[in-house]
Amino acid sequence: MADTRPRPPEAQAPAGPAGDGQELQTTEHGVHVHEVAETSTEREFTVARRSQTQMIIRRFMAHKLAVGSLVVFLLVVVISLIGGRFWKYGYTDITDEFSSPPSLEHPMGTDDIGHDSFAQVLRGAQKSVQVALMVAILATTIGAVIGALAGYYRGWIDAALMRFTDLVLTIPSIAILAVLAATVTEQAGNWFFIGLVLALLQWTYIARVVRGTFLSLREKEFVEAARALGASDARIMFRHLLPNATGSIIVNATITVAVAILIETSLSYLGLGIRPPDTSLGLLILNGQQAATTRPWLFYFPGLIIVIIALTINFIGDGLRDAFDPTQTRVRA
Question: Are the beta carbons of 330 and 58 closer than 8 angstroms?
């Protein structure tokens, strides 16, 4: 017999507030539950992972003085290397204007013979930059290899290499070039020969820095792990240790560039560097010192370029030192 008793009306589920992303559902036991709709976006705090190179670049870009110095130094290098090809006067050209002050035709004036001073400064800066870059590359390579061998192997290898390094440190560059200038006069005034001699005498500082870095790094756990896995000494030195010393090497390489330019300028000023008919910034200062009071543009413009190069390189070195410093706080976007 069918059940004819009246049934209670089903309770209507109250509608949730519009737009709250919830729906009211009734289970088989008559229990009302709220089902939250999945949202398409999730709010969470995330920090993008950056590589070591990216962090170094961001630290360097935060050093405004170093970035500005890098721009100025690159402009000087580019203009000195290729500017002479586009300037209307060559450094050996003789004009019909003698000892004329700076003008639109001659931005840095002319000398008593009629040479355009701007063309000569471009040529002098080109030779100084070529010598400095050659010294930096060769001295950094030699110093890094010798320092790595001494710091990694220690013992008698370290003692022999460091005593040789101390010996080279005691040799004055000016005296060596003076002797070479008297014996090999044909090559003594060549910029490549001067750069080679300076590089063979300027690697010692980088070697000592790399040696100290290797002495501390060779005791780290990752070196022991690489040695336990069968890595060769050459792989450990140049694949694991040398990249960790890159910061110190780059900073000292920038200092070597500034030192090389100043030494080359001093040698040319003393008549032991680049010689006529070629020219350099030091040689231009030597030729213009007698006219420093009557024709100051011949003396001060080459000196100004030397000061700009030396200062910008020092500021770049400061920025690189801060960028490679692992104690610097992390820069967030």
Answer: no
Tokens, residue 77 = 């290098």
CA-CA-CA-CA dihedral for 312, 202, 131, 194, to nearest 10: 150
What is the DSSP annotation of 130-179? HHHHHHHHHHHHHHHHHHHHHHHH-HHHHHHHHHHHHHHHTS-HHHHHHH
Report the alpha-carbon angle 176-181-184, nearest 5. Answer: 110
Contacts of 152 (CB under 8 A, 6+ apart): 214, 218, 233, 236, 237, 241
Q: Give the integer Cα–Cα distance in Å for 313 and 199.
A: 18
C-alpha span between 223 and 79 (Å, rounded): 45
Q: What is the DSSP string of 38-100?
A: PPS-----------HHHHHHHHHHH-HHHHHHHHHHHHHHHHHHHHHHHSSS-TT-B-S--SP
* DSSP-assigned beta bridge partners for residue 32: 26
Spatial contact of 69 and 319, defined as CB atoms under 8 Å apart: yes
- CA-CA distance, 72 to 297, in Å (whole number)? 21
232 alpha carbon, distance to own chain's centre: 30
Q: What is the pTM of this model?
A: 0.73
Kindly list the averaged pLDDT for each block of 10 residues, start to end, along the chain of length 333.
55 49 54 51 54 78 88 90 83 80 83 84 87 89 90 88 89 76 62 84 89 84 83 82 82 85 80 78 82 81 88 86 64 43
Cβ atoms of 292 and 299 closer than 8 Å: yes
